[in-house]
Amino acid sequence: MTPEEFEDWSRKAAAWGVEYRAKLGDLPVRAQVKPGDILAQLPKAAPEQGDSMEAIMADVDAIILPGVTHWQHPRFFAYFPANAAPVSVVAEYICSAMAAQCMLWQTSPAATELETAMVGWLRDAMGLPTTWSGVIQDSASSATLSAVLTMRERATGYTGNREGLHAKGHLRIYCSEQAHSSIDRACWVAGVGQNNLVKIPSHPESPYQIDTDALHRAITADRAAGHVPAGIIAITGGTSIGAWDDLQAVGAIAKAEDLYLHLDAAWAGAAMICPEYAAEMWPGVEQCDSVVFNPHKWMGAQFDCSVQFLKDPTAQLNTLKIEPEYLKTHGQEVTNYSEWTIPLGRRFRALKLWFLMRYHGLEDLRNIMRNHVRWSQDLCERLRATPGVEITSEPILSLFSFKAAGASDAETIAAVNAINDKGVIYLTQTLVDGRSAIRFQAGSFAMHESDADVAYNEICQALGAA
């Protein structure tokens, strides 16, 4: 591609993106295709000769776009948001054009030093101790795996990487039954094993929080059985119903038992830039050793961009740092963030955070989240007042769940499918006390209050509610 062609198609691609965003509200939220529909339209083998950009872009519209679920849609109420604020998209254009490999300070000094600054901006905005540092990961899954590996190494005297886990005893990690499945997977990958991930039930009088008495009993019983407690993973804003643990109580146990404490705040952590939410959900966070949240969810940074804060990075560096001669930086004291993470290769993720926070400012980001919380909670109250609708879990920030009153699990799943097949809004299901329920979360940057009205009408129609 010549420089002139590169310029021409860069402009056309940007124009395509603007047009796509403008028409999102008119598209079905979830892709309305069947399994195999897209594959059937693709050639079986790569072409021997190159094709024109005109033909490639035509196929984007004809083949690819109909098979895309539109995560930037104003009525995307499923899972958690994966916002890509337009200013973040612009930053990604620049990152793509640079194509920098940011594994070491010397491979892109600006990337390393901007990352340090952006972690500091977010740390301060979220009210974390100013002595903390951190690193930008690709996802919360990677940050949690990093924390679990650190727990493993710390509990084995940093011998696991060198000697393996044979004869190290049963390393035990504790979390709430509301914890995300990425924690299970981290225990698989780290060699800890599913059977050594001890899931503690919720408190009987507080279904959104781990039962800390049960947690303490489990640790005590494991020590008596000769097992090796290694760490605790707490949550703020669980995926299913928004569960959030009492960090002061969990932190006190972690300190008393000398256990590494990691906090998964992947979704709800973004809202901690709002003082009123932090005052309710964040007390005790300073007792954690590691905290992860995803700016690529509610905060608007284009995927992928996950920040892991660390009280002291030494334990994680002792776990993950490997420094062959060809990666050493001689003669200078520098930070190489690849030593803080599992992958060696690193993207220039800090740039989109810089663009995002400079363009919006923290107060604009706070107001976006406050609107989502208000609109979601107002919708919950409208549904609560509607005959035939049952609220199955109370709002936590912008997340709650519901179902048709008296509906069976099969009827609830059928209602979700009917809503999503229609395509006006997009919702997902969960389990609440072992029964199927429907999740609603507001979080799209493109959402307006009127979209909550549309959701109310679609939900009532699907549930047969008055």
Secondary structure blueprint with pairings:
Layout (H helix, E strand, L loop, with lengths): L2 H21 L29 H12 L21 H13 L10 H17 L7 E5 L2 H16 L4 H4 L7 E6 L4 H9 L7 E4 L1 E2 L2 E5 L1 H13 L3 E8 L11 H11 L2 E5 L10 H7 L8 E4 L1 H5 L6 E5 L3 H7 L29 H35 L4 E8 L2 E6 L4 H14 L5 E5 L2 E7 L7 H15 L3
Parallel strand pairs: 2-3, 2-6, 6-7, 7-8
Antiparallel strand pairs: 1-9, 4-5, 8-9, 10-11, 11-13, 12-13
Helix pairs in contact: 3-13, 4-13, 5-7, 5-12, 8-9, 13-15, 14-15
Commentary on this structure:
The protein is α/β, with parallel strands linked by helices and 466 residues long. The chain has a domain at 101-347: 3-Layer(aba) Sandwich (Aspartate Aminotransferase, domain 2), CATH 3.40.640.10. The chain is 43% helix and 15% strand. The chain has 15 helices and 13 strands. A hairpin with a 2-residue loop joins strand 4 (202-203) and strand 5. The protein is globular and about 60 Å long.
In short:
The chain has 466 residues and is of the alpha/beta class.
Largest sheet report: 7 strands, mixed
Tally of contiguous helical segments: 15
The CATH superfamily of the domain at 101-347 bears the name Type I PLP-dependent aspartate aminotransferase-like (Major domain)
- The termini sit apart by 59 Å
Computed CA radius of gyration, to the nearest angstrom: 24 Å
Low-confidence segments, ≥5 residues, pLDDT <50? none
- Give the overall form: globular
- Spatially, the strands of the biggest sheet line up as 1-9-8-7-6-2-3
Helix content: 40-55%
**Secondary-structure-derived class:** alpha/beta
The CATH class assignment of the domain at 101-347 is Alpha Beta
CATH architecture of the domain at 101-347: 3-Layer(aba) Sandwich
Portion in strands? 15-25%
Average pLDDT score: 93
- As for the CATH topology of the domain at 101-347, it is Aspartate Aminotransferase, domain 2
Secondary-structure element pattern, one letter each: HHHHEHHEHEEEHEHEHEHEHHEEHEEH
Total number of beta strands? 13
